[in-house]
Structure formats: C-alpha cells, structure tokens
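Figure 3 (text version): structure tokens given as input.
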C-alpha cells in the first residue's frame, strides 16, 4: 500500500450519480452500462472511499411502488453493512422529471411547488433512514431563459418559503440534519437564481432557521462564474458555514465539466487543500471530502475506477505538498504576520471615540510604507516548486 492510497479515515465520498455516470451528454448516448447502486457501494469500498451520497432517484427509480422501494432500500442497506460504507449526505432530484422543466420551489405553478416539497420530504425521510446528516439542495431548474415569466424577487421568496418549511419538517421529525445549499451560475437553465456561494450565504442569513443551513460549494460552479473557489470556501468557513463540499476540476469559461479532482488548476487545488486541511493554520474542515465529478466519456468501467482513485490520490498528494509548503522555513518567514504594538490594538474590536482620535493622530509616512517590496514573486515561486515536487 502506497502512502497516497485512500483509506476510510480520509472521509472521501462520491455520489452514486458520479461513479454511476454512464457517459451520456447533450450530444451523445451513454457509453457505459449503468451499474447498480449496490455494486457501486462495493467497488467504492474497495477503492478506499468512506461513503456514498445519493439523490432519491439514484437509488429508488422515480415512480417505484412502496414495496419496490422497500426492497431496494433493504438491499442497499445490506451493501452498506457488508462494506462499512456510510451515507453522510443525501439530496433530492428536483431537475430530471418533466414536471420540473420550469423549476421546482420557484415554479409559478403551486402544484409543482407542492410536488417538489412532497418529493423532498420523502427524500429527507430516505436520507434519515440511511443515516445522512447533511442534506444538499442544488436547484438545477430554479432559473429562467425567458426572464419576463416571473419577478425574480418572487422566485427568491418562494425558495425561502420552501427552505423555511423543510427546516421545520426536519426539526419536527428530530432528524438532526443540516442543510447545505449549492450554487451554480447557469446550466441547465440560462440563468440560475442564487448563482454563487456568496449569494447563498446572504440568502441563508434571511432564513428562519439559518443556524441549520450552510453551503455546499463546488469547484466547477464557482470557476464557471470566473470566481476564486478558495475565496468562496474561505468566506463560508470564516462563519462556520461550510457544511459540505463538491470537489472536481474545471476550466474557466466552459460548461460544467465535473472533471477528476486536481486534473485542472492544480494551484487552485493546493490552495484549497491548505485551507480545508488547515496546513496554513486556522480551523480545519471536518466534513466529508466529496467528489462530484465523473470519468471522461472515453472510459469503460475500469476507467471509472481509475478516475475515482485518481481524485482521492491527487487530494492526498496535494495534501502532502501543502504540508511541505506550509512547514518550509523560507515560506514561513515570507508570510509571517507583521505586528505593530502601537497600531494593532486600534484595528481590532470595532469603534471607540478614543481609537478614532488615536488613529487620526497617527503619523504614517505613506511613501515610506509603499517602498517595501513584498516578495510575493519568491513566495509564489516556492508554491510552484512545492507543487511540482522539486522542493521538500
Ligand atoms: C448534479 C449537479 C451537481 C449537484 C448534484 C446534487 S446533482 O449532478 O451537477 O453539481 O451537486 O443535486
Ligand atoms: Mn455539485
Ligand atoms: Mn458541476
């Protein structure tokens, strides 16, 4: 066994829809056979994953009878028990069925909104039965092409109504679940409501039970929007709102590629791992490391497992590189925080009249301060050298 081979303690998870993706795209048919959820659980366990996540319909096909549901769930639970795999996260598919063609919670049709709530309550029950403690909301169809169809303010208010309702449901059932909202700027709709993690964070602050709701940022989605994923994740972490994370790879300005983690933008990936794993200091992210990605369409089943192992190995390799970078004495010297015993106390703890007076009275030579070179060229080169493995 190699130091970078994944083990259960690494908390790596995959969605059933990720390793189960048969390679269908908008231009082509599936290229791989569909694998049963039970088989995916066994194969993921063999690869060293900790757990598996699912949409209701990934496990119990839409329209199944109650007895079919019970049979499928019992067999799936046996696969989990046989392998020791966990289901830390569950979610609802509110995007595949035709009824959701113009949204679920934000639809103009009350019947659609009621159907979405009904489906979500049942899916939450399923998630609770499987032991999930995180429940994700990704509003794939919550958006528009013909924007005149509704007041976007109404759409947001309807999303709030749905989440307030569902928080109440989870609390009353005593499930102890927390919600994680996932943003995406577009695709499959022309424009999705609440398009970035930052929008989600503000929206959460307007919810009745905001303490039980956080975010599930995805590398690909923030990158599509041209944003720094690391900054988005950091903003969530700074307020203890990173409840879950979707790791993958993405080129800027493209459709949602959901590539193998670390296959693109390795610098962004190592910066992310420094943050999540706390090698740079600060609180570590303790939740599952979920890969929301899928194998290239060129792959057969063996290629899917190459893909899954690749996500996890790259994470661990980058983690080792991040540790080396953050414990490199030259790096540490370059990023040592500057201190000023006179000024520092004036900058913390908010406003006071005395501080305002003291600040106004400070004599700061702006030209002198500006002269100092910051040595970020050297710092960034050190990051690149650690990343490329030529410095240990
Ligand atoms: C879908 C989407 C993902 C979401 C999943 C959860 S489903 O594959 O592209 O980003 O995380 O609904
Ligand atoms: Mn995702
Ligand atoms: Mn995606």
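Below: residues designed for each position.
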């Amino acid at each position: 066994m190699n130091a970078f081979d994944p083990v259960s303690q690494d908390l790596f998870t995959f969605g059933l829809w990720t390793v189960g993706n048969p390679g269908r795209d908008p231009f082509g048919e599936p290229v791989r056979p569909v694998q049963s959820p039970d088989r995916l659980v066994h194969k993921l366990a063999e690869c060293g994953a900790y757990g598996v996540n699912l949409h209701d319909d990934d496990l119990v096909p839409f329209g199944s009878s109650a007895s079919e549901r019970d049979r499928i769930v019992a067999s799936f639970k046996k696969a989990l028990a046989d392998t020791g795999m966990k289901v830390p996260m569950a979610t609802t598919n509110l995007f595949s069925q035709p009824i959701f063609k113009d949204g679920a919670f934000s639809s103009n049709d009350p019947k659609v909104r009621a159907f979405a709530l009904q489906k979500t309550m049942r899916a939450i029950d399923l998630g609770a039965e499987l032991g999930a403690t995180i429940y994700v909301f990704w509003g794939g169809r919550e958006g528009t092409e013909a924007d005149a169809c509704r007041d976007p303010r109404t759409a947001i208010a309807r999303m709030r109504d749905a989440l307030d309702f569902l928080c109440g449901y989870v609390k009353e059932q005593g499930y102890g679940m927390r919600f994680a909202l996932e943003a995406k700027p577009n695709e499959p709709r022309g424009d999705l409501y609440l398009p970035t993690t930052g929008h989600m964070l503000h929206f959460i602050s307007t919810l009745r039970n905001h303490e039980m709701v956080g975010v599930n940022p995805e590398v690909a989605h923030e990158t599509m929007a041209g944003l720094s994923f690391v900054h988005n994740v950091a903003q969530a972490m700074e307020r203890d709102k990173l409840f879950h994370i979707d790791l993958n790879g993405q080129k800027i300005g493209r459709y949602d590629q959901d590539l193998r983690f670390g296959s693109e933008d390795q610098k962004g990936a190592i910066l992310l791992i420094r943050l999540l794993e706390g090698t740079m200091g600060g609180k570590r992210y303790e939740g599952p490391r979920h890969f929301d990605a899928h194998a290239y369409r060129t792959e057969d089943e063996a290629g899917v497992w190459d893909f899954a192992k690749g996500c996890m190995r790259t994470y661990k390799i980058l983690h080792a590189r991040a540790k080396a970078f953050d414990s490199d004495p030259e790096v540490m010297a370059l990023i040592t925080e500057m201190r000023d015993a006179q000024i520092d106390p004036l900058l913390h703890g908010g406003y006071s009249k005395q501080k305002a007076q003291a600040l106004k009275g400070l004599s700061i030579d702006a030209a002198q301060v500006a002269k100092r070179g910051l040595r970020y060229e050297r710092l960034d080169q050190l990051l690149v050298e650690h990343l490329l493995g030529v410095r240990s």
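Residues 385 and 391 are 6 Å apart (CA to CA).
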